[in-house]
## 1
Amino acid sequence: MVQTNTMEGSLFEPTLYIIKGMCILDNDGNRILAKYYDKNVLPTAKEQKAFEKNLFNKTHRANAEIIMLEGLTCVYKSNVDLFFYVMGSSHENELILQSVLNALYESVSILLRRNVEKRVLLDNLDAVMLAFDEICDGGVILDSDPGSVVSRAALRADDVPLAEQTVAQVLQSAKEQLKWSLLK
């Protein structure tokens, strides 16, 4: 029996964990919103911010849509004063990553009523965070249709803000969400 290195074997096995991270940076390269799903790639906030600065420096003047950086395939899109990024492993299919990027960008665009600017995004950050969660969970792509992402994010955004809820309301909401996720 031939043994393979488990590290090598895991690199090319099919997996649902496609997305390594998604982020939105401003036109100075500062983080507005970021989620990283693989703790082995960029485990600390310091490493993440250093990566984001490097990523921004390599892409903010470029007119390409894809870059390989530090072992990651990164697809990106800019608009006015924002940069949207989706990262996957170096062997990941760029079309899948581009599909997730388009879902992210279009969802944010719809949520912000086509006014995709830093100020408007910050005013609606809760809805944008919900869109992030509706698109990807733990690196697994959940949805790439902006219409359905927005409908679910908007539905959840209409709920009472978490800070204004009692502990009982938060627990009840969590029970309801768990119940609906199990029923699907």
Note: The mean pLDDT is 83.
## 2
Amino acid sequence: EIVPQKSCSSGTAAPPSNPSLEQLLDYIVDVSLRKIVEAGSYHRFAKCYSHLYKAQPELTKCVYNQLISHLQTSFREEIQDLKEEGNLSVLFKSLDELAEEEDIHSAVVPYLLKQHRFLQKAIKEKEEANSWLAEAVLAGRKRIADLQEEIRKSKEEWQAVAQEGQQIVSSLDEL
């Protein structure tokens, strides 16, 4: 029986763990070729070429094996040429990096959102404290203004009393 040839990927029956997109494509190609070989069995081939099969069964088997091998090789070469012409390796790598970045985002974003909520709460608390302090400062300024007004009035009263006292002393001096 024909065993599919190995491509650039692992060539195993199971897909590679955490594969890149290019490895995944190679795996799909291998599986597809294996399915094609299984679907187009030697018995069908022999039936189509029954005259050759009856005359030389071993030659028929050899032709079949060479045909399948050639088809697999040609198919893999065509896929490789397409990958090279389309610069698919670079594109696959870029897509893999984007997927990895997306994975990082999915892990980091919840943490950042939690941090954002924490910082928003801290900002709100600080704003409330600042508001209270601003009110206290305004009340302090008002108290200072009130005290300055009281001092001004007391000073004016004292000056009036002092002036009145001087007038009294002057009037007493005249007497």
Note: The chain has two domains: 21-86, 110-175.
## 3
Amino acid sequence: MASSANLHPAEAPVIVWFRDDLRLCDNPALTAAAQSGRKIRCVFVYDEESDGLRPLGAAAKWWLHGALENLDKDLRQRGTRLSIYRGRASELIPRLATLCRAAIVYWNDRYGEAERRVDSAVQLLLEQRRIDALTFNGSLLYDPAAIKTKSGEPFRTFSAFWRAVYQAGDPAQPQAAPVALQDFGDWGDNSPRAVELSELCLEPRGPDWSGGLRSNWKPGETGAQMQLKQFLDNHFDTYAECRDFPDRQTTSHLSPYLRFGNISPRQIWHAAESKNSESDVKSYRNLEKFQSELGWREFSYYLLYHNPTLAARNLQSKFDRMPWREDPISLRAWQIGKTGYPLVDAGMRQLWTTGWMHNRVRMVVASFLVKHLLIDWRQGEAWFWDTLVDADQANNAASWQWVAGSGADAAPYFRIFNPTLQGEKFDCGGHYAKAWLPELSGLPPQDVHRPWQASSGVEGYPTRIVDHDFARRRALDAFEALG
């Protein structure tokens, strides 16, 4: 059957609907639109109205502002521009396509249930108006609907899932950015009003708390390419052996760029492959470990696709009976980094200042909230959602459930991180803790993660809000009561 686009005159334009894919390179929807030979209008809809869509947290909104600004700049350099709208995408996209008599609307897939529901509604309305909708996988290495066990069921463990992915072969090579794009022009007098980026009010106003974010990040595709190069040139060679040490800049820091699609996982995958030396065991270990981190992101989206309520419901239903505590005072101490455990507090203050936290420390602070304080993992997930620049509906929820023990392939509940020992093992010199906790600057290394034992005391640093041994026993008792 011929595409309905063939029924449209040659001058009929096409629309590219940007969402979590704010880049030009390796953007399958944009590439296909450019190859159509038609004039293009690029659109972004800031949708806070469609049912089920989760509003972005404050740090993610800040990032989105910068990423949209960068995308519009890059599009203008190639001959077109980004039109920004605010409202229900399920109404705006079909309306815009109809007004400009578009032949095709292109977009890259999303995998949350509410997002898929919006996309399906748009596609149905377009089909009714004889406008094609062409969609692509632009944010994952593999389509989560296509990877299943031999019995046709979804995988429940990461290791089995990742083996299946490896057997599927390397992901496709990334596509180059279009060299030039033909701009469509004005929509017409009856079109919805495009808004200025500033009208979305994504950046903080009075007080401006984003200074730490600005000094640590450059949102957008340009920043993503710079960060990837910096990581591969300077830290990839020590990734496997040093990635767990938070005082070293050895992790990629690419997570927020992936979250907003400023770079694709295929770009990262193949760029890392180019650093691998087949004859060098160490090089292969670095590559294998780094790619497995991309794999965890894939698995998180896989879980979200097959479990739409991932951020709200325990994957293991027995945890529905968990006797979580309501303790707003301890929760607040955790949020602002005043628990009395230096590794936990340093991580939470790093998060508040920069919108990011080292992965090893994320596991420790999450374990502390869920197991030391016995506070529901969903309260931690919500705090991360608001404060992380890489807050991701799949990674965020899947990782919290993993730490809590309630998720798929989760860490056993009885695995309770000792934050003191974790600090002494992965921050043995105390450099990371001291960087974020100036109260501890005068302590010798052996006392940094045990300030309560310092002979001279520590002025201004809080006492521990809970004893480790007591908290561990309480958590284990609660788990055992689940049966």
Note: The longest strand covers residues 40-46.
